[in-house]
Design brief:
Keywords: Membrane, Polyamine biosynthesis, Transmembrane, Transmembrane helix. This protein is α/β, with parallel strands linked by helices. The chain has 21 helices and eleven strands.
């Protein structure tokens, strides 16, 4: 019995430990967006389906002797593959189809080992049921989810803060080696004495299969939708991935460990409260601080998962149908992942799957039992569902009455709105929930910079007061300046380009490029020569350094926000090393650190100290034309630039004390330390 428990616990630990590890590894190559996490989730759901399908086939089609031979061979092959692939695989190469490239890279590196890990839970439970026919295997399923929960909680608090990324994967390889040995021991010494795999198993009805699939898919869609909502304003780091997933797993642990721990009436009422909170958060979430948003979203998630998984636990079959039941749940999880990753971006121009799945869960929890409800309860719940749908539609139409353009892709959701501000019409670009640039629609004003880039801000001072280079590296005269902009937005910074200047924008999201070119005129109206390069800023700059050498920028601007957050890989020491290699000796690095939830001042100041740069802080308060305050940091060794009167007058004091311990590198970048 202990060997079964240890094996299933370790398999679950490894399965859910590799999820944040792999996503953390892939983030820098795909712009640091939350979509990387949802893509990784889809891969693991696919591997769960493959593992459960394999387990179902193995236990229902093969004899015990054949099962031992086939699975033992697969375990050894996966072990050899993992150690070979771990040393042979190259870095991922982003393509025009990022979801496909992520899935193919993960499949090559982890496909075979994860097939073994994913199949372990149903296989070990089935073998346990055959060896101990009088004991329920579903307690082992609760233990499996407990192992998964332990893995998730350990990653942001133990693994990520203390182990470099390369050592994290090596530790996982060692863990898989231990699991392989445990499985081989089970196959050799704890094998069932008699086989029940050939007995006839009654097929579940199509209605039962449909309900299993629907409940499982709804839980996964809710998990991914809540994670998307949480990471629109804060970098999609493991902490904000694992907390929702931990609650998702906790609901499985509770409902499958003790039947009486699930009381449908209690969770249904809590979920009803969550529906009201969801409408508030969707449209007015930015009025709440991060911790309040986190608590409210997690309440919605947990109550919804308790309903979905509680109903699944009510419908769990006898042990002989165990692998079929898990196969249905895995298939439902894949369907949920495909809905979020493929169908939603293709069919919906915003994150509408969040309110839709809330409505679906309410109906799944109420409709199958509606005949047992008294009339007033039936009217109350179905009327509440209708009211939620109508109110969500009304709020959406009200908010989008000023919308000019809206689209969604792998990297997020973009909206262009024409909104009157202080009596004048402004066109605003919104990425997720955050403005990424604005422009006056009046012809005579449209070359006036607005928002975070208006005159007097740190970046405006850098672009206006950084004088042209006297000569280029080869000694020829050059009257123009060369600017680099990591992040395009609406293209506002192009207004600071003068005749003879060159500006290179680096933008990861092709939808942002189309939107800036088609709905704003900053790029077309600029006096400078403007070039827009598609790709992650850090990766493209690295390629340029290798192929063309240093760009010798007079000013390099770091403004690559994903909604309200800068991807972490753009703020590490290694990233700053690259930026400085592309800067002219007297150049200026401008870093945008405006953020509602993160204090990035110590991150940037410690980089400045490490590289021997002077760092100046600029805070520009909101005004009637620009409702957002803005914060920039300028880093340079150019004392002539620093001593200019405008720079001295507008540079301000740092808003918080320096924390020397906050040192971000590619291996270590702890977000928890910079939360406001």
């Amino acid at each position: 019995m202990p060997l079964f428990a240890i094996t299933i616990f370790l398999s679950a630990l490894l399965l859910f430990l590799i999820q944040p590890l792999a996503a953390r590894w892939l983030l820098p190559y795909y712009g640091g967006g939350a979509a990387v996490w949802t893509a990784c989730m889809l891969f693991f759901q696919l591997m769960l389906l493959a593992g459960y399908s394999y387990a179902h086939w193995l236990t229902h089609r093969l004899s015990l002797k054949q099962q031992r031979t086939v699975h033992g061979s697969l375990v050894l092959l996966a072990l050899l593959w993992l150690w070979w692939a771990g040393s042979a695989v190259s870095a991922p190469e982003p393509s025009a189809y990022p979801l496909l490239s992520i899935l193919s890279w993960l499949l090559f590196l982890l496909g075979l080992p994860l097939l073994v890990v994913a199949a372990s839970a149903p296989l070990v439970q089935r073998w346990f049921a055959e060896r101990f026919p009088m004991r329920s295997p579903y307690r082992l399923y609760a233990l499996s989810n407990l192992g998964s929960l332990g893995a998730l909680l350990s990653y942001p608090f133990i693994v990520e803060p203390w182990l470099p990324l390369s050592q994290q994967f090596f530790s996982w390889q060692l863990g898989f080696t231990g699991l392989a040995l445990l499985l081989l021991v089970l196959l050799r010494w704890q094998w069932p004495k008699a086989s029940t795999s050939s007995e006839a198993v009654a097929a579940a009805s199509s209605r039962q299969w449909g309900y299993w699939l629907s409940l499982s898919a709804a839980g996964v869609v809710l998990l991914l939708a809540v994670t998307q909502q949480l990471t629109q304003n804060v970098p999609p780091v493991p902490f904000l991935w694992v907390v929702p997933l931990a609650l998702y797993l906790l609901s499985f642990i509770l409902v499958f460990n003790r039947e009486h721990w699930y009381q449908r009436a209690i969770w249904l009422y809590l979920f009803g409260i969550g529906l009201v909170l969801a409408l508030v958060l969707i449209h007015f979430g930015r009025l709440f601080d991060l911790y309040s948003q986190l608590a409210l979203y997690l309440l919605i998630l947990f109550s919804g998962c308790m309903l979905c998984h509680g109903e699944l636990a009510r419908l769990k079959p006898v042990a002989s149908q165990l692998t079929r039941f898990y196969l249905a749940m895995a298939l439902g999880g894949v369907l949920g992942g495909l809905l979020v990753n493929l169908l939603a971006p293709a069919l919906l121009n915003d994150f509408h799957e969040f309110p839709l799945v809330l409505l679906a869960i309410l109906l799944l929890a109420v409709l199958p039992w509606q005949r047992q409800l008294v009339l007033w309860r039936k009217v109350a719940w179905l009327g509440g569902a209708a009211s939620f749908a109508l109110l969500a539609i009304w709020l959406h139409l009200l908010l989008n009455q000023f919308t000019v353009h809206q689209e969604r892709n792998f990297y997020g959701s973009l909206v262009v709105r024409d909104i009157p501000v202080a009596g004048q019409l402004q066109r605003i670009l919104i990425d997720g929930t955050t403005s990424h640039g604005a422009q006056y629609l009046a012809l005579e004003q449209r070359q006036q910079a607005l928002s975070y880039y208006r005159p007097g801000t740190g970046v405006a001072l850098a672009l206006q007061y950084r004088q042209p280079q006297l000569s280029t590296s080869d000694g020829t005269k050059n009257a123009g300046r060369h600017f680099g902009m990591v992040g395009l937005g609406a293209g506002t910074l192009a207004v600071y380009g003068e005749a003879g200047d060159r500006i290179q924008f680096y933008e990861l999201n092709p939808a942002v490029i189309r939107t800036a070119q088609q709905h704003f005129s900053y790029l077309a109206d600029s006096a400078a020569i403007v070039e827009v390069l598609l790709g992650d800023g850090r990766l493209v700059l690295q390629q340029q350094l290798q192929q063309q050498g240093s760009q010798q920028f007079d000013v390099l601007v770091l403004d690559a926000f994903s909604s309200d957050a800068i991807p972490q890989h753009l703020l590490t020491r290694e990233a700053f090393t690259l930026y400085l290699q592309h800067l002219h000796t007297d150049g200026v690095l401008a870093v945008h650190i405006s953020n509602n939830y993160l204090d990035l001042t110590s991150v940037v100041r410690n980089h400045a100290s490490h590289f021997g740069l002077d760092a100046l802080f600029f805070h520009t308060p909101a005004d009637s034309q620009n409702p957002a305050a803005t914060e920039w940091v300028l880093l340079t060794t150019n004392q002539d630039f620093i001593r200019q009167e405008a720079i001295q007058q507008l540079a301000g004091n740092w808003p918080t004390p320096l924390n020397p311990a906050i040192q971000w590198t590619d291996d270590f970048s702890n977000l928890l330390r910079v939360l406001k």
